[in-house]
Request: fold
Amino acid sequence: MATAVRTRMAREYLRVSKGKGRTARSISDQHRENLAAEVDHGPWTWGEPYTDTGSASKFATKIRDDFEKLLADLESGEFGEPGDVLSLWEISRLARETGRGVALVDACEAGGYLIHITTHERTYNPANYQDRHDLISGINDAEKESRLLSKRTKRGVDSAVADGGVHGKLTFGFARRYAVVDGRSRPVEQYADPVEGPLVIELFERVAGWNGRERESIRAVEQDWLKRGIKSRDRTVDGETVPGVPFSRQNLGQMLRRKAYAGIRVHKGTERPGNWPALVEPALFDAVQELLADPDRKTHTGSQIKHVLTGVLRCSTCGGKVSVRPGGDAYEGRLVYRCWDRDCFTIDKAATDAFMIGDAEHHGLIIRLLTSPHLYRAPADEESAELADARGKLTAKQRSLKEFEDADPATPAAADLIGRKIEKLRGEITELESKIKDLTPRPSAGDHLDLGPDADRAAAWSAWEAAQLPVKRALVADLLNPEMFGTPRVRRVADSVSPAPADRIEFVNEDGEDLLTEWGLKI
Reply:
């Protein structure tokens, strides 16, 4: 009796780089050619693909989320069964950093997976020494080409910067004239865009109260532009036009600080006059900077705060604050939390909120914490006998320490004895302070919601849902801070076990303890 042979499953990793002056094979083109390869190298069934838009270079700043998911699936076996195929259009689609590429080849070898490179017209077996050598050599060549291209690009940028020339992303409010130089289309002139330019000037004048205008807040301009339908310029992604989006208060604030509008080029902290005319007169630009730098300026009202977690989330890489922004193509328009200062990370807002807060059926970490016995170790106004005894001992030892420190020994032997007593007392005081901290009842953050120590999660969720936003933010701030259960810090995908919020968010208090993991609250 003949044994049925399983048809291999193929899953694609599709990636397209973005950038001016490049011609990149689109994802749809890669997919079409990968499908055609099945005729000669299949038969295959096709599983769900992995898709990224961004550079595979080691110099890229955007995290390739699906690459990280692919690597994790290969290592865990979620990719498929041994013998299944990872389909790539070309080797450079994989990685232009040898170490990352080798990690993926190793994962394929360990899982028994094959790698098909469509442009090579060949399927590789990473377990075969020659195939492994050919794959790693291809990745190494791609890294070499990437580094060479980066060096050429940097030389061109440095030259343009030295001349104060036009380079980089086109700032809203400006237009450019291009000419063919050395066989490539390059910007040779930058000038005020007839439609966008007046809007930028209007923004500066309204915020500064210039030219007979009444001074307005950035928020007021944001709302007015929203009503007038003023949006960012359209973009082209993979040959398709992506419409612009309304300007947020954060976008407008960044525009007001952009020195390009005053005719100044900024590159790597160095400033020099640009070779384009200023869009905003220097006196107006300086007036706005002085206004923005005023520490007494009220930047928002309580009614403008929209999100519970932005007050406590922090970036694990730089320690900076977190903002909410549209996630772009990679997140299909969903909102994301992003590092405000340096764009170190991006994480899906809905998934993060589900992990941190949850819903009526699946309670998140905050709801579980509100009903945890660790939050209510004792009534806040009750001091145990052990705690009172520890406080008494601490006071006595602190008094003794001061007496010894103020002593004037008559002999070297007496000085040595006092020194040893001081050292011993300091150690005992440190131990007592730690013990008192452990015994001191934690303030009940549940008081914000009128919750008692016996409240269950359903009651906590109902109280949470009924609370106003300022109450929720105050409660979260009381719970998640270094002195309590730790500030939530979001790691980059590359620094995490997986892209899931549970693996990317760490909670470390001032003692370096991850109490939430220790107590089993992070699920």
In short: The radius of gyration is 30 Å. The mean pLDDT is 79.
